[in-house]
Design a protein that fits this description.
Number of domains: 1
Radius of gyration: 18 Å
Strand content: under 5%
Number of helices: 14
Shape: globular
Distance between the termini: 17 Å
Structural class: mainly alpha
Largest sheet: none
Order of helices and strands: HHHHHHHHHHHHHH
Length: about 290
């Protein structure tokens, strides 16, 4: 059962990444945080090549990298902006909507249709999201949903979840045409290089922050790299769907850490909502 330990470590590091990410965007630009996490993580991910073979690249690798890398660049920035805008405990659980969106995008892109269990998972995710803002129910039955959409952090994270439902298909294509570690390194390199012109022409004055705030950014990159190492170790032993399902428990961890570290309010409804959303993910993916 080592894969279970590795999977929960993946979830823990994912949650810690959210906490350190929240700290980083309190000190520097979301663009710098999105760039820095990959710059500082890459040197720690590269040694994985000693443990995982470097596969030959398939015909569709570059197409997958162009599309998947471009979309990952967008989500990298949106993710940090979401962490900056709102509480962790109400923002991070929105990533569990990604499997829900996959039930919409997969039939269109790859012709896969949801089972009855998948539909049940969707209902749980929607119910859980409703509970995240249950306090708003006094303003009407639909007020919790309206509050989520109105608040900038959850709204941005919903956009991230939707884009991830598209990038998942390109990630699958990229891994099949290279390998898990090769793909992870390629996407990191693509994001670092592709963001450079944007930072140089639009955020040139902020670029010194990559060194000025090197401590928090290097910690952010290190936690992210550890997440990759734990996830790769788990995937080598167990099915990807099982690993990802346990990884999504990071949403519950982030709710707890948001309350403990950032003194966020509404622990009961937000933890209950996040837990139900994770149960929905389990129904969909396992």
């Amino acid at each position: 059962m080592n894969w279970v330990i590795y999977s929960f470590l993946t979830a823990l590091f994912e949650s810690l990444k959210d906490v350190v990410g929240k700290k980083s965007v309190q000190k520097c630009s979301p663009y710098i945080a999105a760039w820095g996490i990959r710059i500082y993580a890459l040197p720690l991910i590269l040694p994985l090549l000693f443990f995982f073979p470097l596969n030959s690249l398939g015909d569709r690798f570059w197409w997958a990298l162009l599309m998947g890398g471009s979309l990952n660049l967008v989500t990298a920035v949106l993710y940090m902006k979401a962490l900056q805008a709102s509480d962790l405990s109400v923002t991070v659980p929105m990533v569990t909507f990604s499997p829900l969106f996959l039930l919409i995008t997969s039939p269109i892109i790859v012709g896969e249709f949801p089972s009855s269990r998948g539909v049940a998972g969707v209902l749980l995710i929607v119910t859980g999201s409703y509970l995240l803002q249950l306090k708003e129910m006094k303003n009407g039955a639909l007020a919790p949903f309206k509050a989520l959409i109105k608040e900038r952090g959850p709204r941005l994270m919903l956009m991230v979840a939707f884009i991830w439902s598209i990038t998942a298909n390109f990630d699958k294509m990229g891994i099949k045409n290279s390998g898990i570690v090769t793909w992870a390194i390629a996407v990191h390199l693509f994001t670092i290089v592709a963001m450079l012109p944007l930072l140089w022409f639009k955020h040139k004055k902020e670029m010194p922050q990559i060194w000025l705030h090197r401590r928090v950014l290097s910690l952010l990159g290190t936690v992210n790299a550890f997440k990759y190492v734990a996830q790769m170790a788990a995937i080598q032993i167990a099915l990807v769907a099982y690993v990802v399902s346990i990884k999504r428990t990071s949403a519950m961890m982030s709710v707890l850490l948001g309350v403990l570290i950032f003194k966020e309010k509404g622990l009961k409804e937000r933890l209950l909502g996040a837990t139900i959303m994770v149960l929905g993910v389990l129904l969909i993916t396992v």
